[in-house]
Amino acid sequence: MVVQDYAFAAGAPFTDVDQRQRRLVAVLGFDVADKLFGAPELAIGSAIRVRGAQLIIKGVIAKKGTVLGQSWDGFVMLPLTTFEALYGRRQTTVISVKMPAAAGVADGMMRAEEAMRIAHRLRPGEEDDFTVDTGEGLIAFWAKLTRVIFTVVPAVVAIGIVVGGIVIMNIMLMSVTERTREIGILKSLGASRRDIRRQFLAESAILSLLGGVAGLLAGSALAALVQVASPLPARVTGWSVAVALGLGISVGIVFGVYPAHRAARLNPIEALRAE
């Protein structure tokens, strides 16, 4: 087994001697080296100061990019013994191990658990005070989480659309009731049922579109807040804006059909008598 088989842009990884002798050396992430020295090659042999100690840079890890919006290139790595000398022993430690072949994962987990139990001085039958996870476990977790999200989110969206559509339909029905006399006047002046229907459908679509725009603005503000407050990527794309606006218009038209039909079928004489 090898611990995190990183590719290096410049320099070399830590050695067993660095670990045993608590040498004041460091390995930088690509972004840190680029920001401090301009290039990975220029960082090698240079010094940085950490908690009052001067560390010599002996390696720069190649650029790894981002995961869930969080950079994997902005770190300073020290030998574990050096870290403990500077910061003291920590209760929580993460050890990453890379297996040479996928077929040996199960055996590797057993060996890792045995080594951890010995290091923690646990007696036979005593519960582990640590956890061992594999890449497959993390992938399975994210797959399950994704399935839950793609099951729940569409249901929530569908409920929101139906509720919003019913609200729009009720508003338009109230509008038809309040504007009965206006509809009668329009019909007496020659407006056809189609004209009345089109007018109310247009009003319903505009009302729904305004609601969609308001929701889009609120969603954009929430996405900006998520980006500031967490490493998760959250941005409003062009296609999502188009879908939101198109959905807003569609909901208004669909749920505006009944109020528009009701307005178009009003008897003009009875409508003119309405107060």
**Strand count, sense and closure of the main sheet?**
5 strands, mixed
Number of helices: 10
Number of strands: 7
Write down the secondary-structure element order: EHEHHEEEEEHHHHHHH
Tally of discrete structural domains? 2
What report would you give on this structure?
By secondary structure, the protein is of the alpha+beta class. The chain has 2 domains: 8-98, no CATH class; 136-273, no CATH class. 59% of the residues lie in helices and 10% in strands. The strands form 2 sheets. Strands 1, 2, 3, 4 and 7 form a 5-stranded mixed beta sheet that branches. It has a two-stranded antiparallel ribbon with strand order 5-6. The chain starts with 7 loop residues before the first strand and ends with a helix.
Keywords:
elongated, 275 residues, 59% helix, 10 helices, 2 domains, five-stranded mixed beta sheet, two-stranded antiparallel sheet, single chain, alpha+beta
Concise summary:
With 275 residues, the chain is an alpha+beta fold. Helix content is 59%, strand content 10%. A hairpin with a 2-residue loop joins strand 5 (66-67) and strand 6.
